[in-house]
Design goal:
It is a single chain. This protein is an all-alpha fold and 77 residues long. The chain has one domain. Helices cover 57% and strands 0% of the residues. Helix 1 packs antiparallel against helix 2. The chain is rod-shaped and about 60 Å long. The mean pLDDT is 88.
């Protein structure tokens, strides 16, 4: 029985998961210890722009990993 995914699919899938985790790690922090004090760092470039782009790249990588098909050779036919 043939495996549903090739090794390359699993590598792409795991790298997509790593990108999503990295995106969420980039979103962390920026809060304030005192709820009465506003910290403008919460709206910084890293949390508002970079982290969502990294997460989106991870989701796209996972979709590519699921849809990727290795080229089939015609030697056996």
């Amino acid at each position: 029985m043939k495996a549903p995914f090739a090794r390359k699919n699993y590598i792409l899938f795991l790298s997509g998961l790593a990108l999503i985790a990295l995106g969420y790690l980039l979103m962390m922090g920026g809060g304030s210890e005192d709820p009465n004090v506003f910290n403008p760092e919460i709206f910084g470039f890293r949390r508002i722009t970079l982290a969502p782009i990294v997460c989106l790249a991870g989701f796209v990588t996972i979709i590519v990993a699921i849809m990727w098909r290795s080229p089939v050779s015609n030697e056996g036919k």
